[in-house]
Amino acid sequence: MGNPVPRIWFVCQMCGARFGRMACEMKRPADAPKYCSRSCKNASQRDQVVTKCFGCGSPVSKKRSEVPVSGRVYCTRLCYDADRTRKRKQTTYPKIGGRHIHRVIAEQILGRKLKRGEVVHHKDGNIQNFKPDNLEVLKNQADHQREHFTGKKQSAETIEKRVKSRQRTLLMKKKVRI
């Protein structure tokens, strides 16, 4: 066997893979290949982008229009959910199957679905505490507000804001009736 033909190495503009071409395949430097395969070339013509999954780092091919401005692209729903769980603030209610955990637990305690308007209250104020003895089901939002504001001193500004908000609500209801 003779000497091997020297290869020139390139990086695919679509997937980032390293690939080589023989020097004799290119007549001039302007003929340098941009893609490692036909599938990458076709993907580029379909206006697709190969990027990494924001959760696990695996390659993901998406249309440019489907890539959000933030650049956060996920390969699967599981990867998206896992990333959201890692980054979730401690001030948000975690969910199971799209439903708030405290509501699911309250339904299990009651042995029935919550009625429309019923509110689940955390007695200790910690929304991350889902122990059954910490949860209380209240009839409506008004009862829930009374639970939070009864016995607490409020500034004159807070009371004034609440009164103005109530007046706006009543005005809106009158306008709707007319």
The helix-strand sequence is EEHEEHEEHEEHH
Q: How many β strands by DSSP?
A: 8
Structural class: alpha+beta
**Strand portion, in percent?**
15-25%
Task: Indicate the mean pLDDT.
Answer: 80
User: In terms of per-residue confidence, which ranges show pLDDT below 50 for 5 or more consecutive residues?
Assistant: none
Radius of gyration: 30 Å
Query: N-to-C terminal Cα separation, in Å?
Result: 96 Å
The major sheet is characterized as: 2 strands, antiparallel
Q: How much helix, percentage-wise, in residues?
A: 25-40%
Query: What's the total helix number?
Result: 5
How would you describe this structure to a colleague?
The protein has 178 residues and is an alpha+beta fold. It has 5 helices and 8 strands, in the order ββαββαββαββαα. It has a two-stranded antiparallel sheet. It is elongated and about 95 Å long. The relative contact order is 0.06. The model has no long low-confidence stretch (mean pLDDT 80).
List the topology elements.
Elements: E1 7-11, E2 18-22, H1 38-45, E3 48-52, E4 59-63, H2 77-87, E5 95-96, E6 99-100, H3 101-110, E7 119-122, E8 135-138, H4 141-149, H5 156-177
Antiparallel strand pairs: 1-2, 3-4, 5-6, 7-8
In short:
The protein is of the alpha+beta class and 178 residues long. The protein is built from five helices and eight strands.
Looking at this protein, list some descriptive labels:
2 domains, 178 residues, two-stranded antiparallel ribbon, two-stranded antiparallel sheet
